[in-house]
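During the no-cost extension, the postdoctoral fellow (Dr. R.K.) reprocessed legacy sequence entries with the updated structure-token encoder. One reprocessed record is reproduced below for audit purposes.
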Amino acid sequence: MRARYHAHPGAVPVARRARPPSLLPPDERTMTARDQLFANPTDLVDFRFDDAVAGVFPDMIRRSVPGYELVLTLGALLAARHVPAGGLCVDLGCSLGAGSFALRHAIGVPGVRILGIDNAPAMIEGARACLARMPRTRPEAADIEVRCADLRE
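Re-encoded structure tokens follow.
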């Protein structure tokens, strides 16, 4: 039996918002590359965000971080409440840019720039490829720039 929930007297109804679109480009949503990198760990090596990891990263992160897309969406909504027109949002450790895309989707004020930074060239290359396939949904949507850089330098 399903529980029924009743609003208390005087409660204000809240409109349900449509679920935001996937934060991954269309090609990434339907990707078939499943993370099998460490299925048979015969050689232990230092983990690197190389081409092999970048190729399966969307699957890897979804399975490794519960609620990953929800965290991205909520973080972007929080940023959207506080970023001023002409402001700058920085996505540190941007990987393939999902956080940057979430920011672009959520922010509605004009002139905002988004800067994605990652120190892994394979991730930045992947982010640029995703960015090229991810069209702007609104003309005033924020510009996204990605850079390969080490924050310690």
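The radius of gyration is 18 Å. The longest helix spans residues 68-82. The remaining legacy entries will be reprocessed before the final report is submitted.
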